[in-house]
Amino acid sequence: MEAVLAHLRAAIERGDYAIGDKLPSEAELCRTLEISRPVLREALRALQTMGLTVSKTGKGTFVVASAVEDPTFGDYAASDLLEVRRHVEIPVAGYAALRRTPENLDHLAHLLDRMERETDTTAWVAMDTLFHLAVAEAAQNPVFRRVIEEIRDALARQSAFLNELGGRREQSNREHRAIVEALIDGSEHDAVEAMSHHLDRVETTLTDIVRPPGKGTDTPTEGDPQA
Fold first, then answer.
1. Rg, the chain, Cα only
2. How far is the CA of 5 from the CAs of 103, 142, 220, in angstroms?
3. For 64-90, b where at least 16 C-beta lie within 10 A, e where not — what string?
4. Residues near 217 by Cβ (< 8 Å), separated by ≥ 6?
5. What is the pLDDT of residues 143-190, one digit of tens each?
6. Eight-class DSSP state of 36
7. pTM as predicted
8. Which residues contact 30 (CB under 8 A, 6 or more apart)?
9. pLDDT one-digit tens code per residue, 12-28
10. What DSSP character marks residue 221?
11. pLDDT value of residue 58
12. Which of 218, 35, 65, 78 is CA-nearest to residue 86?
């Protein structure tokens, strides 16, 4: 899927498909690229998330931008989502370290164990959002949980995007483990640092995915970070 996405993205950024153009039909793309329809649809969804295309039911996929600027996850742009997460989830982790109950810790430990064993991306993404909800619950303030609930769909979409294109799952598991260990220790400082690091890595991976390919490169190569 990553290779198909890189191919289509490069074609759009080169101008092979201009703004307003309709991409070839799914059947045609599958035939010319020699790929299955599920793989193509994943790549098309990623293009839309990146803001390069829009899909119109019954009409096809149309190019709406020639370069990636700010991916959208559900109702929220990535930059807006990350800004809010930094202002909410970092202090929440600190409160959680001070206020967590034994039940909170048991729930988080059990959830983390399941995530570390899970190999299916869809199932892992669902648990990823539950993890962040559980940290908010451990802060013992229902408003924090409500805020995370509000952005839950966007968090899931972002998580799926980062895992499909950035291979974030194992790294996220390690970062989540550090957060839980800080909560177990009751260290507000360590919890804040662990959540800050986690969100830093999310931002770095997202930036790596949306960074434009090097100028003068017409096709992605094996070493291209976009491939």
1. 19
2. 43, 40, 10
3. eeeebeebbbeebebeebbebbbebbb
4. 10, 224
5. 999 999 999 999 999 998 888 777 889 999 999 999 999 999 999 999
6. -
7. 0.78
8. 36, 37, 40
9. 988 999 999 999 999 99
10. -
11. 85
12. 78
Structure tokens at 3: 């290779």
Q: Output the pLDDT for position 208.
A: 86
Model pLDDT for residues 45-59, shown as the tens digit of each residue: 888 888 889 888 888
- The two tokens of residue 189 are 């400082």
- 176's enclosing H/E stretch is helix 169-185
Look up residue 48 and give its amino acid: Q
Cα 95 to Cα 135: distance, rounded to the nearest angstrom: 9
Contacts of 18 (CB under 8 A, 6+ apart): 63, 66
Q: How far apart are CA 192 and CA 197, in angstroms?
A: 9
* Backbone φ, ψ for residue 223 (5° rounding): -90, 0
Amino acid code (one letter) for 194: A
Say how far apart CA 47 and CA 18 lie, in whole Å.
14
Say how far apart CA 77 and CA 69 lie, in whole Å.
Answer: 10
CB atoms within 10 A of CB 46: 23
SS3 of the chain: helix, strand, coil, percent, to 5 = 70, 5, 25
Alpha helices in 2-120 (DSSP H): 2-14, 26-33, 37-49, 78-99, 102-117
